[in-house]
Each structure stands twice: as C-alpha cells, then as structure tokens.
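#struct-help
A.M.: can someone run this one for me? Single chain, 160 residues.
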Amino acid sequence: MPRVLASVFAALVVIASLTGCATTVSLEPAPDANNPACADVTVRLPDTVDGEKRRWTDAQATGAWGDPSAVILACGVTPPGPTEARCITVGGVDWVVDESEAPRYRVTTYGREPAVQVLVDNEVVSSNAVLDRLAPIISAATIADSACIATSDALVGNDG
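D.P.: on it. Structure tokens below:
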C-alpha cells in the first residue's frame, strides 16, 4: 500500500509540474532586454493588472497578465522615432498608440530609455487602467529624454 501511495504522489507531482509549465507565456526578448533598467522594471511588476493575475514568461524583461494573456509587457524594444501616430500621456509617461489591430492596442513609451512596449487586449482590460498601473514603475526605472508634442507645435516656425 505505501508503494501505491508513493506512486500516486509522484504522479501528482509530475502532473502539477507539467501544469505549471503549461501556463508559462512564451515570448521573445526585446533587442535591448539586457539593459539594467529593464531588470529594474521587471522586478517591480505587479502581481495583478486591472484584475488579471501575472503569469510566468520565458523571456528576459517581459511580463504577462491574464489567461489567455490580456496584457504583455516587453522592456528594451526599439524606441519609436518621430511619428504622426497618436501619443498620449498616462501617469506621467508618454505613449505612442498603435491602433492598427484594435481592440488590441500596442502602446510604446516615447522618449524613454529603454523603451517599453505593452500589448493590451481592450476587450478584457482597460488600457487606461493598465497604463495607470504600469506607468509609475516605468517612470521610476527608465530615463525620459524627450516628450510627445503635437504636429502643429513641431511645425511652428518652419516656413518650409
């Protein structure tokens, strides 16, 4: 009888460990994921974002929340250059918003080094709630070197 219990226990341990691996989110690290500021961002990531629980990821400087993932964060992405895309400020951080796959939005910090990108499924979570939660972490860990400006402001004084 003890052997049977030991075998059942061993099988449960194996099943539990496989189940744990199945919930890991497979991602690719961003080009600058080795930036020390990305480590600072990663260690500060919250356990929940807009009610969604954090999940393990298999790539450096990343985070994911929800099952399936409603929010995915990657630190060390290529910083966006000047763009006419919509730029918003949430929590003191400027974000360039890519709405091309709405209701899934790709928002990337603007004027911060290293750049951080967040993918948000707006059918599951509120993008404003997500950015409000993550902005203080990103603001504390990254360096702002420029800010969004309106296209009309960029053209002032430029007569052609």
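A.M.: thanks! Confidence is low (pLDDT under 50) at residues 1-22.
D.P.: also worth noting: DSSP finds four helices and ten strands in the chain.
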